[in-house]
Amino acid sequence: MYDRHVWEATPGKTLLHKTDVRTKMVLLILLAAMVLIVDSPRSLFLLFCLALGLHVVARSSPGRWRILMVFILFGIWGSMTSQALFYTREPRTIIACLLAPTTPGIGALTGGVYIYREGLEYGAVQALRSGTMLTLGLLINWTSDPRQLLRSLLSWKLPYELGFMLITGLRFLPVIFQETGVVLTAQRLRGFNPFRALSPQHLIQTAFQTLFPILARTLRRAATLASSVESRGFGRETPQVALPVWSHQERFFCHTMLLAVCGLVLLKIMDALQFNGLYYVPSCRGLYDLMKVWL
Amino acid sequence: MDSMIQFCNVSFTYKHRSTPSVNNVSLQVLPGEILLLTGATGCGKSTLLKMLNGLIPHESGGKLAGEIFVNGQSTRDFAVAEMSRTVGMVFQNPDDQIFSTTVFDEVAFVLENMGMTTAQIEPQVKEALQLVGLFDKAEASVHALSGGQKQRLAVAAVLAAKPRVLALDEPISQLDPQGAVELLSVLRQLNANLGITIIIVEHRLHEVLPLCHKVAIMDAGKLIWQGKCEEAYGRQELFAAYGLRLPQPVTICHQLGVAVSSAKVSEAVAAIRQRYAVPYYEVLAAATAPGRPEDLPAKLPAVVTARSLSFYYDNPTQLVLKEVDFTLFPGQFIALMGNNGAGKSTLLHLIGGLLKPAAGEIAVLGQESAVSPAVGMVLQNPDFMLFNSTVREEIGFSLQQQRKGDAAGWTGYCQLLIDKLGLSGLEKEFPLALSRGQRLRVAIAAVLSCRPPVLLLDEPTTGQDIGHIEDIALLLKEYTRQGGSIVFCTHDTEVAARFADRIVVMHQGRIVADGAPAAIFQDQVMLKTSGLKPPAVLLTAQALYNGTALTVEEVVGYVRQTCLGSYTGENPAS
Amino acid sequence: MQKIIMTGITLLFICTLGLLAAHIFGMNNHVSFSNKQSGTQTGAYGKVMETVLGQIEVYNYQRMGFNKGFICFSPDSRFLAVGSETGEVLLYTTKGSLVWRKNMGLGKLTALEFSSDGQSVLVGETSQQGWLFSLRVKDGSEQWRQASVRELGVNIKEKTYPGIVAIRTDAAGMIYAVAQRYIKHADGHNEYVGRIYKFTTDGKRVESFPGDHNLDSWVSWISVAAAGDKAAFATANFDVAKYKYDQNIYCLDGNLNTVLWSNYIDVVSPYQNVTMRTSTDITPDGRYITGVASDGRCFLFDSEQGQEVWRRSISQPQKIGGVYINATGNYSQLLGEYAVFTTGNTYNRANWQLPTPVEHPNSNSLFVFDLQGKLMNNYKFGGMIEQIAASNKLAALAIGRNVRSKDPSVHGLYIVTIPETQLVDYAATSGPCVAVAISADGQYAAGIEAPLQLDDGQVIGEYKLTLLAKTQR
């Protein structure tokens, strides 16, 4: 987990490594849009599997798979747990009672704490959404040279500061993870017991104590990188630099994907109009049927 | 000849500061010269360096007075990006500079910024890689490179633009000896073959000086002295005054009143022989030195015992430690040496209880090793150990956790540490805001405060002034005299030779040598395999009188004693 | 240690995704039971297959209607068609294997029937267009579809949709479908729009009743003589209002052109009208027609003239403790020489949700009369007879909630002999059994169980299909 090399982009010869960063960014944005538009658990699951499949294509290392699995498991189980307990929509079916409403004091206060079946299902579906985006985001991070990423963002007229901030963040995040591990190690060595007192004040103080050295180191590092990069000609006054060519095939692919997502949006609108009783096209019944299952 | 670099009455004050960091500096560097810019931490040398390519003042803000000309151009008139074609800047930590995934991409970065096409870029990249000896690694991942290779990559990354000037800010401070040698060799070749003017800011003078043509010393923003290297060798006291470390042969010569214009052992020996009639064999009766404490007999039980210790991180077939046997006795000061990847840090982590062995056993004070107050550890980067709001809290932290001392964990010993480590007056300061040397000392004090029987230090002297290194080493020596045991990881053979009772050399996961410094540093074969160089003082003693010496004082004392009356030079005291 | 952790994480990941996939894609659990483990009481029938149909909303005792589903066997007893609440039509063999499943999309399934030649499955839905589909038994592909929206209209804003609510066939293969659209107005009054269609086997519409306007009464059931020369339906209007089609029973000719006769049934106190929701039934030869009213009266009519041959009260309103209680008259079936009627749960006449002091003695019961009107036998079940299916001297009954006793142990699929009302076998279900079917030869029976939330919040049962086959003795 704290091994920075697992987090940092590494070169490779897979299709995903060779793909232009812009194509990958477009794919991320469009797939993110798709998971937001789509409500059907089936489609969300398939999109999620597609994202995982891309990791297989990119030949992510076992260490990376572990990180991915840990994050996804946290996402799924965390989301399911929170929704299972706090689901408020109807219908909702109780499958277990954690705290009966008759429990003295807290029972009456809370009205009982239950696990709702629909909450579990809803939580799992939501987790698929966030899981897909996380998976794709990590994929791009792991298969893209941060420099290419920066150039691509700039070619899309992203302000220089923003682009550099993003890249610096991506660049340093793995290092910060690693250094967090080192700080925790150092605290252990000093006999630090974060849970000695469970007061919120103490815990907040603990959090800051862990944060200080990492922040300090990060700030110093950021300054050095900025100097280094500017010393090599990168800066606001620089005329537009030679950008890697975005191949026609990839552009075409992106445009097709964009059209597909636009189509999806239209279908969703159509479905919403039908659902709300505003507009129904009888000849499109087959489409509505498909949307019910897949959208 | 027109200068390549010219500082004309340059002063600079950072934003939000009241005192200038550079104060009225005038300096010239001729084309093809290598200038070493040195001084104590905080003297302004790095600030001066950043003026070369316009980082100051264009990016830093602040107030700049005076002019800086590089290749006839004023840095005020050109943006940093434009200056990058003339000046290549390399910083201290390669990990903070490299942000591509492949070697090729990193080197191509500067050329892309110049608007070159791919067809133009490729040959220039390859040329730059060739120059730094990384041609065969063009497609390699940057993560697969060693520290030295990364720093060479950083050099190649600026070299590709074919600058006339290379400015390097403490380029070897984070490198092991092998990496340092490789980088310095590259710089020498660049200067010799391409005539590139080089400015190096560095502490490790004894390694860099032999490379340089000129030296400039700064202190508190002012240029104290500048001159040729040969002249620098005659100014030992100046260097000493500012805590700068000349090569040992030069120091020996100076103390013997011999003038020398080179740091080479052979030249120093020749110069000494010109003045002193030193026999070619060692006269044992005269073998003197400030007495070395005898090795503590192994009567007391060992504090650390490791038997057949093996360890791997991920892959069981890639052992990082291979059946290591190691014992540490009370009062011992061990220098653990070896190249990066030899397993030194891993061994320390195992002793500290942070890792569990894959095979074998390790015991600390008779117990299986675990994180405990019995073992104190100072990590490689002490910044990660500073997480309290004041120096006082930091030093008292461990004791507070153990509920010792007063409410803040403060004891009389803590106060003593403050005094001995020169931290007086800084008790209320925020530790992370202190200077680098101060931060290290706070970290050491914080670990020492609870007086652990075993103290482990993982390369704490990286990037430190010699003065601070000596302060720390002396404190630690005293600690061992009080019964504490210390394992001190270092690349610095001179420091190890001076202070350690015992040297343990590791190579590829095994201990390849373990013994007294004198014996260790005489094993040339082992040293070469392990990537270590014997301290210059030992080589000097060997060359001079076929003897063994680990400190400058030993050699000077020997020569004086054996050659009483044979001095033919001026009285060095006059 | 690291390896163990990694293995653990990987396993947990795969299991989590696997469970998620199983849940999302609704992998069915096919469980076969041998006779010994059949779970039926007597072992006369054994469980061939038990499968979860999906996840549906869970109702409790307070809910008036109950989610269900539709099942029927093909005429040759080789196939079982299931229409689930989740919007799917599934076809199984009577050996228990799934032939195909089809998601019907937007529409809500409201009727299911096999064509008389057993080659098609007729599916009725309620939707914006109110389709009647014919799907091939072989592969589920659509043969034809007909909409009811042209006649019944639709209001997509108010979501009052037309739907096919009953499908029947005659021996010649003609298809009769009842289409209905129910509109609840803001002022509280109810409006009904209905039509009865007749189609050929290839989906061509040949007749409709009425021809040029819609029925204005609640009509959701029809029975057709085997020869196709008569069709009879009853009305079930909630409101006491003036309707054009205000008679209680109508008998049409086979072409749906002419009303051969219609009858008005007198209202019995304390009721204000007569509703016959799931009536009528007609003998195969078309001689007799039965009907049962919600007030507990059952009738036998002569189909020629519409004369009432006899009437019986299988449940009468009783005033106990100041409230009228009764058990609803539910289903009527003609099985050979016998007329079978069922009653439902006891209810409070003033408001069905209010409690009743006692359970009506005739609630949740099966009554068998001969055609002369003599009571042959009756059988009291512990819970609501949600559905009855009969063939070959056997009746299969789906027994669901008893909203008075709330005893879940009564739930299950019961098979009794007609007229003896002897229990042949009983397959218990945890949740209420809400739909039932029995094959023409009586060899197979199937039931659908639904989940039920008890008063303490616990959910029992699941939405499940059970297929039973007669065991070889």
Give the count of helical stretches of chain C: 2
Q: What is the helix content of chain B?
A: 25-40%
CATH superfamily of the domain at 5-238 in chain B: P-loop containing nucleotide triphosphate hydrolases
Number of strands of chain B: 20
Alpha-carbon Rg of chain C, integer: 23 Å
Rounded to an integer in angstroms, the radius of gyration calculated over CA atoms of chain B is: 25 Å
N-to-C terminal Cα separation of chain C, in Å? 59 Å
N-C termini distance of chain B: 38 Å
- What is the share of helical residues of chain C? under 10%
Identify low-pLDDT runs of chain C.
28-38
Given helix and strand content, the structural type of chain B is: alpha/beta
What strand order characterises the main sheet of chain C?
A: 23-24-25-26-27
- Describe the largest sheet of chain C: 5 strands, antiparallel
Main interface: chain pair and counts: A-B, 52 and 62 residues
CATH topology of the domain at 5-238 in chain B: Rossmann fold
Sheet with the most strands of chain B?
6 strands, mixed
Annotation keywords:
heterotrimer, A: 295 residues, mainly alpha, 3 domains, two-stranded antiparallel sheet, 12 helices, flat, B: 574 residues, alpha/beta, Rossmann fold, 6-stranded mixed beta sheet, 22 helices
Please describe what this structure looks like.
- The complex is a heterotrimer of chains A (295), B (574) and C (473).
- Chain A is 71% helix and 3% strand.
- Chain A has 295 residues and is mainly alpha-helical.
- Chain A folds into 3 domains: 1-144, no CATH class; 158-237, no CATH class; 247-295, no CATH class.
- In chain A, strands 1-2 form a two-stranded antiparallel ribbon.
- In chain A, helix 8 (146-155) runs antiparallel to helix 9 and helix 9 (160-189) packs across helix 10 (200-231).
- The longest helix of chain A is centred in the last third of the chain and has 32 residues, at 200-231.
- Chain A starts with a helix and ends with a helix.
- In chain B, helix 4 packs across helix 5, helix 11 packs parallel to helix 22 (552-562) and helix 12 (265-275) packs across helix 21 (536-545).
- A 6-stranded mixed sheet of chain B has the order 6-7-8-3-9-10.
- Chain B has a domain at 5-238: P-loop containing nucleotide triphosphate hydrolases (Rossmann fold).
- Chain C has helices spanning 2-25, 149-152; strands at residues 45-52, 59-60, 69-73, 79-84, 88-93, 98-103, 108-114, 120-126, 131-136, 142-147, 163-169, 175-184, 190-199, 205-209, 223-224, 230-234, 249-253, 259-263, 281-282, 288-292, 297-302, 308-313, 318-320, 323-335, 338-348, 365-370, 375-380, 385-391, 394-399, 412-417, 423-428, 433-438, 444-449, 452-453, 459-460, 464-470.
- The termini of chain C are far apart.
- In chain C, 49% of the residues are buried.
- The model of chain C is unreliable at 28-38 (pLDDT under 50).
